[in-house]
Amino acid sequence: MELLSDQGLRVDGRRAHELRNVECRLGVFGRADGSAYLEQGNTRVLATVYGPHEARAAQRRHDVASINCQYRQAVFSGWERGRRAGGGGDRRAQELGALLQNTLESVVLVELYPRSQIDVYVQVLQVSMLIARNDKILTRTVVRTPPASNAATLALIDAGVALRDYVCACSASVLRDQPLVDLNSLETSGAPELTAALLPRSGRLPLLEMSQRFPRG
């Protein structure tokens, strides 16, 4: 299946430089100090923030705030409903939580909240990504970093947490010498995927991750 047509169109109808449609809403979960709902294409993410509040003794830092990030993928988020996704035993979810924590620590003014803790929870509600099987387009669930980072940043803004910058995350790759942005799973199945989080004001990159999928032997 051609991932990029002669007319420069991708399988989902976008051009190489085009992002998926993005919609977001703030303040969607009243019991949290801050919350954000983000739709990026068919990906739907809910992020909630609690705090700053007094830190637990094990996480207390006397000069700055501690940031705790947890990433979970709802079991109903896609076609692999029989599998446990995003639980405590999911190593990839833990890795994404750590990446998210490192990213947010670079933008939150943690020195303003000594001995405090900020809890950030990201729940992936739906991840529909394209897959080719027998020349047909199907969907499946794929854990993605950029929507989680974007939703978490919006939730921190909604909570009124002081930030030195805001995070804008996106994925990219190169196909037939053509740069692509905001990839679907077909485009990442045979090419490296670069995930980058940019701080627009400073131009810094707090997150830069390269990944490559390999077919099972």
UniProtKB/TrEMBL annotation:
One GO MF term attached to the UniProt entry: RNA binding
Segments passing through the bilayer: none
Q: Name one GO biological process term.
A: rRNA catabolic process
Question: InterPro entries given for it?
Answer: ExoRNase_PH_dom1, ExoRNase_PH_dom2_sf, PNPase/RNase_PH_dom_sf, Ribosomal_Su5_D2-typ_SF, RNase_PH
Which Gene3D superfamilies does its entry note? Answer: GHMP Kinase, N-terminal domain
**What cellular-component terms does GO give this entry?**
cytoplasmic exosome (RNase complex); nuclear exosome (RNase complex); nucleolus
Q: PANTHER family from the entry?
A: EXOSOME COMPLEX COMPONENT (PTHR11953), EXOSOME COMPLEX COMPONENT RRP41 (PTHR11953:SF0)
Quaternary form? Component of the RNA exosome complex.
Protein family per UniProt: Belongs to the RNase PH family.
**What is the recorded function of this protein according to its Swiss-Prot or TrEMBL entry?**
Non-catalytic component of the RNA exosome complex which has 3'->5' exoribonuclease activity and participates in a multitude of cellular RNA processing and degradation events.
Protein name as it appears in the record: Putative exosome complex component RRP41
